[in-house]
Design goal:
Shape: globular
Largest sheet: 7 strands, mixed
Radius of gyration: 20 Å
Oligomer: single chain
Number of strands: 17
CATH class of the largest domain: Alpha Beta
Helix content: 25-40%
CATH architecture of the largest domain: Alpha-Beta Complex
CATH topology of the largest domain: Quinone Oxidoreductase, Chain A, domain 1
């Protein structure tokens, strides 16, 4: 019997919950959960903000733990190995995206907390293909957020061939943005942090930013016209997107990873005349996650976390909702 924490209705408090997982599939693994990050996507699923949550709902898709069991068809993973599990718990492995190594774009990919139970538990199951070993040098307690927030901001560096000489800006220095600053600094980029929080400015410089721009200052945005090769937006808020597009160089890209629900209000001519792009991306493939973890180990990059016990899960979620967390919250057994 798997022991977990579940919400029974939208917005409901998480309570102890047990379920029988049944026989382990031949291509599946069972992870003994040691740590699990809390992502704002967990909150969105708990509140049914996206309209497809199913209850009882066990959140948790930033899992780190050791393998307690592996299916009889699994040959590349072993019992006792420390691994991580992110947003996806399985892929079809037959579509063109999967066969091209872009499993994260699989139209029928299984979400770890979509229609199944996630990692706010003592154990969680997933397809072996979606599980990535944790390399030496990566801190297990803080690694969970890398498997969702971390890969979300690392993936664009690979997808768009970001160069060490590029000037890159990050909008929003929070759970995603603080990891983006660390990755970009280690990548060799000239890094600017857009933040409206004076309190975060010194922290942003300490985490890798070379420059700070106040996102509430129209004059500052105007002065940055034509500066950036890439802007990475990690925020959920509606912004003056045209002002940010104006800070892009010719062929520059505004790339959105923050799941804002508001439509983008964009003028077309600034895009056409300077051949600029606007794009978005989800989490990365297992191969890109492995590459990110190796890069994090090499450069000693890790999320800044606040730690709670699993029995403090409701307190931890309230802390996340308050917007005061610095910068990711992790539950630990």
């Amino acid at each position: 019997m798997i022991k977990a924490y579940a919400a029974m209705e939208p917005g409901g408090e998480l309570r102890p919950f047990e379920y029988e997982a049944g026989p382990l599939g031949g291509h599946d693994v069972e992870i003994r959960v040691e740590h699990c990050g809390i992502c704002y996507s967990d909150v969105s699923m708990l509140d049914n903000a996206w309209g497809f949550s199913q209850y009882p709902l066990v959140p948790g898709h930033e899992v780190v733990g050791t393998l307690g069991a592996v299916g009889d068809q699994v040959t590349h993973l072993k019992v006792g190995q420390r691994v991580g599990l992110g947003w996806h718990s399985g892929y079809c492995m037959t579509c063109s995206s999967c066969l091209s190594g872009d499993q994260n774009l699989c139209a029928t990919a299984k979400g770890t907390i979509v229609g199944r139970h996630g990692g706010f538990a003592d154990r969680v199951r997933a397809s072996a293909i979606s599980v990535v070993p944790l390399p030496e040098g990566v801190d297990a307690q803080s690694a969970g957020p890398l498997f969702c927030g971390g890969i979300t901001v690392f993936n664009p560096l690979i997808q768009f061939n970001v160069k060490p000489t590029d000037k890159v800006a990050v909008i929003g220095i929070g759970g995603l943005g603080h990891m983006a600053l660390q990755f970009l600094r280690a990548w060799g980029c000239d890094v600017t942090a857009f933040t409206s929080s004076e309190a975060k400015q010194a922290e942003a410089l300490g985490m890798g930013a070379h420059h700070i721009l106040d996102s509430r200052d129209p004059a500052g945005l105007e002065a940055a016209a034509g500066r950036f090769d890439l802007i990475l937006s990690t925020v959920h808020a509606r912004l003056d997107w045209n002002a940010y597009v104006g800070t892009l160089r010719p062929k520059g890209r505004l790339h959105i990873v923050g799941a804002t629900l508001e439509p983008l209000d964009l003028g077309v001519f600034p895009l056409i005349m300077a051949q600029r792009s606007v794009s978005g991306s989800p989490v990365g493939s297992p191969g890109t996650i492995a590459r990110m973890l190796a890069f994090a180990a090499q450069h000693k990059i890790k999320p800044v976390i606040e730690s709670y016990g699993f029995d403090q899960v409701n307190e931890a979620i309230a802390r996340l909702k308050s917007g005061q967390a610095r910068y990711r919250i992790v539950l630990s057994h």
